[in-house]
UniProtKB/TrEMBL annotation:
Gene3D superfamilies reported for this sequence: 6.10.340.10, Hypothetical protein af1432
Membrane-traversing stretches: 12-32, 44-65, 107-127, 133-157, 192-214, 226-249
Domain spans labelled HAMP: 250-301
Domain HD-GYP: 303-501
Compartments where found: Cell membrane
InterPro entries: Cyclic_di-GMP/3'3'-cGAMP_PDE, HAMP_dom, HD/PDEase_dom, HD_domain, HD_GYP_dom
Pfam families: HAMP (PF00672), HD_5 (PF13487)
Residues in HD domain copies: 325-450
Protein name: HD domain-containing phosphohydrolase
Keyword vocabulary terms for this entry: Cell membrane, Membrane, Transmembrane, Transmembrane helix
Highest taxon listed in the record's lineage: Bacteria
Length: 504
């Protein structure tokens, strides 16, 4: 935050220098235009007047700048939430404070001493021109200050929005900076009207001023001189209109680019809210956008849950077809997740393992009741039909056009009956050729199959099944997952202080 605060103050001064330079450029051109008519003595007096007025202006401005950044400068990580809110408000208000600073301490700071000193010099016969010039110079000064204020306002605005976002992010109490109406500093309508009125009035007033000066100087001019002067005016008019439009466009771009970034992130599946601290109507627009994406996110979550429920229901319906395997899919899914956890899988990988466990036998839907529910040993042909279920399951899921986060289950469904020695089915893959999900599910599936009763054979005990897994390491099972499962089962039995026999 410290860095951002320093950068903000530095950039604010930079904007001030840019605005002042533009104003100074106009003022100097005006002075140069007139100094040609001043004698050396008069020029000396004018420079003396400026050397007194400019420090007065800088002093008044320095004081105003300090006052405009009080809350921001005092802010520390120990400050109260109210102080953070005040600093955010001050930051968003800063561009308007700049306009006020330029129009009051800056403009009055120079024009008041300069005008009164010039007036005195005229009274003392040190300067010979008409006092009306003072009035004209003050009006010209006012116009130039307006131009300066507009430039500074638009240059400072993106900085203040950026700093407000940093304050919002770094506030020690996250809710310190409340997005309420108190952070609404000015409406976009007002900014639009003010800048359009100013950019259109500025050249006309400049025209009137120079007409007045010409009338007073009483010079007659040639047609060429008139049109040169007129062309300069046209250029000034076009230039101010262009600058005003460009600054307004840039001003609009700040919130629009944040919204655009928000849309792009949503497209990439990131539901993070966009910044909504702009101090104008865009606060409401971005708050609306944030409400919309949080609604979409909730719906997306609900859809995911619904899909999971549909598949859980599907698995339960499948298991219910065969009274001997009731709950098999759900149990395999939970054994598989405990293996995945033990083997160090990430949360999202564990989620995929669960889904694969739930769906691993989905292809049994395609196996006729006469085979699936047969009370007795299967014939070779029947067993061959039974062995088709991993492929049928995979095909069914491909046709179901699964959403992206479910696609990863396919290798688990197809390969959960492969064996490390290559004697499994459907593809007879060997060792590490078998996809990781297949190797993992094989352990969970075999354990549940061994411990469940079948129509023709009673299930073996947990202890015996674990022994079979131990013995099948490397031949039937991937040792990594077999060991992980054995470890999980042994520590579960130890933790609960019950013999392995009773661990489900
Ligand atoms: Fe199976």
């Amino acid at each position: 935050m410290e860095e951002m605060r320093k950068l903000f103050i530095k950039q604010a001064w930079r904007s001030y220098v840019i605005g002042s330079t533009a104003a100074l450029f106009c003022a100097v051109s005006l002075i140069v235009f007139h100094t040609s008519r001043l004698s050396a003595g008069e020029l000396y007096i004018v420079l003396l007047i400026l050397s007194v007025s400019i420090p007065v202006m800088l002093l008044a401005e320095w004081y105003a700048f300090k006052r405009d950044t009080t809350s921001l400068r005092k802010l520390t990580f120990e400050s109260t939430p109210e102080a953070w809110q005040a600093a955010a408000k001050e930051t968003l208000y800063f561009p308007i404070a700049c306009v006020k600073r330029v129009m009051l301490p800056h403009f009055i700071g120079i024009s008041l001493p300069a005008a009164s000193l010039t007036w005195m010099a005229i009274l003392m016969d040190l300067l010979t021109f008409s006092p009306l010039y003072i009035l004209l110079a003050v009006i010209a000064g006012l116009l130039i200050a307006g131009l300066h204020a507009m430039i500074e306002f638009f240059l400072v605005y993106p900085l203040s929005v950026k700093l407000a976002a940093v304050l919002h992010e770094q506030a020690p109490v996250p809710s310190s900076i409340v997005h309420d109406r108190s952070l609404f500093v000015t409406s976009f309508r007002r900014k639009l009207i003010a800048s359009l009125v100013f950019t259109s009035a500025f050249p006309v007033l400049m025209l009137l001023l120079s007409l007045q000066v010409r009338r007073m100087s009483g010079v007659t001019e040639s047609i060429i001189e008139f049109w040169t002067w007129a062309s300069v005016l046209v250029l000034i008019t076009a230039g101010t209109a262009w600058a005003g439009a460009w600054l307004l466009y840039r001003h609009l771009l700040t919130p629009l680019s944040k919204l655009h970034e928000g849309f792009r992130r949503v497209k990439e599946g990131d539901w993070a809210p966009v910044q909504s601290l702009f101090g104008d109507e865009f606060d409401e627009l971005s708050n609306g956008f944030n409400a919309m994406i949080s609604g979409l996110e909730r719906r997306e979550k609900r859809n995911r849950e619904l899909l999971q429920n549909v598949f859980s229901f599907f698995a339960a319906a499948l298991d219910a077809r065969d009274e001997y395997t009731a709950g098999h899919s759900r149990r395999v899914a939970s054994y598989a997740v405990s293996i995945a956890k033990e083997a160090g899988f990430s949360e999202s990988e564990q989620d995929l393992v669960y889904k694969a466990g739930l769906l691993h036998d989905v292809g049994k839907i395609g196996v006729p009741d006469a085979i699936l529910l047969k009370k007795g040993k299967l014939t070779e042909a029947e067993f061959a039909a039974m062995k088709k279920h991993p492929e049928i399951g995979e095909q069914m899921l491909i046709e179901a056009n699964l959403p992206a986060e479910w696609i990863g289950v396919l290798p688990g469904v197809r390969h959960h009956h492969e064996r490390m020695d290559g004697t499994g089915y459907p593809d007879g893959l060997q060792g590490m050729e078998i996809p990781i999900l297949g190797r993992l599910l094989a352990v969970a599936d075999s354990f549940d199959a061994m411990t469940s009763d079948r129509p023709y054979v009673k299930g073996i005990s947990v202890q015996q099944a674990l022994l079979a897994i131990e013995e099948g390491k490397g031949r039937q099972f991937d040792p990594r997952f077999a060991d992980a499962f054995l470890h999980v089962m042994k520590s579960a039995s130890k933790d609960k202080g019950i013999p392995l026999e009773a661990v489900e």
